[in-house]
Amino acid sequence: MAQAAGRLAGVLGGVLEGPLPLRIRAWDGSEAGPAEAPTLVFRNRRALHRLLWKPGELGLARAWVAGDITVEGDLYEALGRLAPSVWQGGEPAPARRALPDGRTLRLAADVLALAGPSLPPAPPEEEVPRRHGVRHSIGRDRQAISHHYDVGNDFYALVLGPSFVYSCAYWPDPEATLEQAQAAKLDLICRKLALRPGMRLLDVGCGWGSLVLHAAEHYGVHAVGVTISAEQADLARKRVVDAGLTDRVEIRIQDYRRIEDGPFDAVSSVGMAEHVGSVAYRTYADQLYRLLRPGGRLLNHQIARRPLEDESGYAVDEFIDRYVFPDGELAPVGSTVSALESAGFEVRDLESIREHYALTLRAWVANLEANWSEAVRLVSPGRARIWRLYMAASALAFEQNNIGVNQVLAVRTGAGGASGMPLVRGTWGS
């Protein structure tokens, strides 16, 4: 079909109700749209079939993961141009304005004429299969975590680098290396928790063990790290052995709800609470409170979304839920603080490090792109595309203040309300 790009441009312009923000190239080699813009490439008609059968974000996500569409040029610029109308950078968008019924039918007819009839294309194999069980039950959470984390430690090594830290780094200088920024983040957490030799530290959602290793080596603590990812635990245990810290660090495959050997002097939860979910968050907060001794500190490091006018209308982002973090949920930081306070904690400090996560994500994307062929070999082309899209879009979301990330420092006060906190903010270990 000659000049498919021009017809595509007309359809997309109708959907977006404005000028086409990207250049379009169709499967027949034709192009349309602004010459200076990144190019959205439709490699085949199957991309349109996906949009016909699943209009909106899920159809686009399936086309991207399957390789039916791609972007040539700067991916960040492409996402930024689309953001006002299509993409919210990893965060669920407000309800989009519905098109009038007649216009919707005309656009659907245009797409059908361009694509041709077809049966529904099968979803890419990387899509999460139908889930069973109660949302955020122990069994279902284990399945969700496995989907995201048990994809091969070698793949994560390519993306995360030697630090093996999968959470927002802390950049003392924008010119610092990713490894320097991650070391600074680990040390910041240890200082906020006022760790000292002989203390017991619990790290909930310990990943590959970087924080417990840092705390044991540099602060002399006895640390327990828990994860429900088998592959994370395997590598974390190997790292503990290699560091000669088996007498001070224990790695467990254990759900936070089943930890019974408190009290601990300090508890850290870094990038884990996003998996807890609103239905289980009070259980999470209550459990961490029980596991702390009086006077013990909690450092809760968590991504936050913006509050919505109608919280009952909050919907999980389909791309993220189907391909990245199944059952993951983001909450406003105010809700997190309220839940911790309701469990009995006194919240003593809150630090927003939103810009730091944008820098971290851009560094991870650079690592992935620099090792693209190896990443595809280790996982699959589809999963590599998932990671590139979600990390690049999330970097923009943090930069544009669509989502944030906060470190909340809280304490379980002791007798008479004693907090053990210093009088001056920032002198954490005093």
TrEMBL record:
Q: Which residues form a coiled coil?
A: none
What the entry lists under InterPro entries is as follows: CFA/CMAS, CMAS, SAM-dependent_MTases_sf
Q: What is its EC number?
A: 2.1.1.-
Could you cite one Gene Ontology molecular function of this protein? methyltransferase activity
List the GO biological process terms: methylation
Q: Which UniProt keywords apply?
A: Lipid metabolism, Methyltransferase, S-adenosyl-L-methionine, Transferase
User: Per UniProt, what is one Pfam family of this protein?
Assistant: CMAS
Task: Tell me its family.
Answer: Belongs to the CFA/CMAS family.
**By what name is this protein known?**
Class I SAM-dependent methyltransferase
Q: What is the lineage of its organism?
A: Bacteria, Bacillati, Actinomycetota, Actinomycetes, Kitasatosporales
